[in-house]
Design brief:
21% strand, disordered N terminus, 5-stranded mixed barrel, homodimer, transferase (chains A, B), two-stranded antiparallel sheet, uridine phosphorylase activity (chains A, B), 12 strands, Uridine phosphorylase (chains A, B), alpha/beta, Rossmann fold
Chain lengths: 339, 339
């Protein structure tokens, strides 16, 4: 297989010391439309993750919710070799994923000894194993958004290049057997639109939620090679609420009938939506604006056309949750030419 | 002082066994306008926390993210005596709060021995000390919303009555010295409107975010009695993003100038907004619809007119974060006639 890493079109590598000169002028159009960064150079076309001209005027940058900072930590030494970042809601799951990757890449040392880099805070957990960073992001768009802002600044301060991001998570499926893995084609909002609305200074800005198609196709190929569980590419709906927002009948509040619920879910199904989760719009939008290749891989825990409650036995749920992990681990091994 | 508990107007207590007959018809108008529940009885005016006619048709209710359920746990025995529920973002902080309340109420046993009732999941942490429940909710509206749905169902299944809810948290202040405690008068959104927009089956429903004025005034009185730190009543803005959404210049993305940021914050200040956080719109809206008396008490960690980064020393931040806890502990002691 041809490595995706070789397809990024980067002719020269970023020089660590030149971060002061690397910021290009920021226009809202580039934040919205993800215009490819073009520098004033005939030879260097480089990635520029952060999109903020103010950062280079700061003497210190405290990544408050990660409990890291540019004066208190040597971020290039700690994180400079990162090539893959995997994010997921649960801290325990992201620790397990880091241990799994440690074993899978046959890294030296004991996988049980990896420590939480964010251990001074309980907002997020972060583990590093070789070139892979595994971070939890909690539940919902605001929670993952805080983590992504600080992660992207971390990658910038650490002078990371050619980084790929993966969201591995759980979801409710629409018309799929539980346990199916959905690799996201388009992320859509509650109105089935492929966009993310961000309020900035009291004004609504709309951003595209397009993900990297090459990564999605490569991940599907990985699943075919593993042939261990059903995997499809489809659209993913991201909502801001688990109960009313996803048409569940079992919340503390519910004002609609089962027929109205099913009508909504069937409309979603007709729009190509295969699963529903709560973080992928802002994940896709921020990665796109920040020139980070990204993919969303979520397993379905139930078929929402058949019910709302997650009553599958715990051990089956645990196995389901490992499926996106297997897929991403296989992808990473191929990227690193270890297979 | 006259106890607020005596002001609820409840003439007869809810009979535990009659939950099957207690659901009144649900109309969207009652969900939106929080119409007081009137039963077909001349004598009983009772609280009805859940607003969902489907719940009583369910054989089992699995509170998935709390790792509790009606078949696996005896919820009335575990939680039936709850009178005060305190929620906050950080799991560690809510554990500390539970230990603090344990000491403050002089309950028997060792405060260090209290265990996380949700220990089978890392989504939320929950501690019970006497009549007080302390729960973490993570960051952002979607995260607290999931917890509130399951908490309110828990209170319903456990046949709790006369429960008061408190959100104790951290926030950015506007024009206040760091460390000031803000008891929320009105919760407003990013457009300074006292409302919460909830998407239900692809349609936007608007709910009031009015909180209990009696609790706010009583909490201010408690602060006067303690006279340990500055406390005010003011409006609180709730945003869905910590960086761009709160006008910060130090995120991974920023497309506005310091002048534009200050213009927005000054407009907020003119609208009576004293602090900014990320959960209170949905907290106020859900409590109001579900007939739960509620208050929001947040300490300010910085003055946003002077900066964006939280660079205050750790020990000072820890002391600031204890201030809302002291206030609520004092309030609870007064309610229990322990002072």
């Amino acid at each position: 297989m041809e490595s995706i890493l070789s397809l990024t079109g980067i002719k020269e590598r970023f020089v660590q010391g030149d971060s002061k000169t690397s910021i290009r002028p920021i226009f809202e159009s580039s934040l919205m439309a993800n215009t490819a960064p073009i520098l004033h150079s005939d030879y260097i076309e480089k990635e520029q993750y952060v999109q903020n001209p103010h950062l280079d005027n700061m003497e210190e940058d405290i990544l408050y919710h990660l409990n890291l900072g540019t004066k208190t930590h040597n971020l290039p030494a700690m994180f400079g070799d990162i090539k893959f970042v995997c994010v997921g809601g649960s801290a325990n799951r992201m620790r397990s994923f880091a241990q799994f990757i440690h074993q899978h890449l046959e890294l030296p040392g004991n996988a049980d000894d990896i420590r939480d880099i964010c251990e001074g805070t309980d907002r997020y957990s972060m583990y590093k194993v070789g070139p892979v960073l595994s971070i939890s992001h909690g539940m919902g768009v605001p929670s993952i958004s805080i983590m992504l802002h600080e992660l992207i600044k971390l990658l910038y301060h650490a002078h990371c290049r050619d980084v790929m991001l993966f969201r591995i998570g759980t979801s409710g499926g629409i018309g799929l057997p539980p346990g199916t893995v959905v690799i996201t084609d388009k992320v859509v909002d509650s109105f089935f639109r492929p966009q993310f609305e961000q309020v900035v200074l009291g004004k609504v800005i709309t951003r595209s939620t397009e993900l990297d198609k090459g990564m999605a196709e490569e991940l599907l190929l990985c699943s075919n090679e593993l042939s261990s569980f059903p995997t499809i590419i489809g659209n993913t709906m991201c909502t801001h609420d688990f109960y009313e927002g996803q048409g569940r009948l079992d919340g503390a509040l519910c004002s609609f009938s089962i027929e109205e619920k099913l009508e909504y879910l069937k409309k979603a199904h007709e729009a190509g939506i295969k699963n529903i989760e709560m973080e992928s719009t802002v994940f896709a939008a921020m990665c796109r604006v920040c020139n980070l290749k990204a993919a969303v891989i979520c397993v379905t825990l139930l078929n929402r056309l058949e019910g709302d409650q997650i009553s599958t036995p715990h051990d089956v749920l645990v196995e389901y949750q490992q499926r996106p992990q297997y897929l991403v681990a296989h992808f990473i091994k191929k990227q690193l030419a270890l297979i």
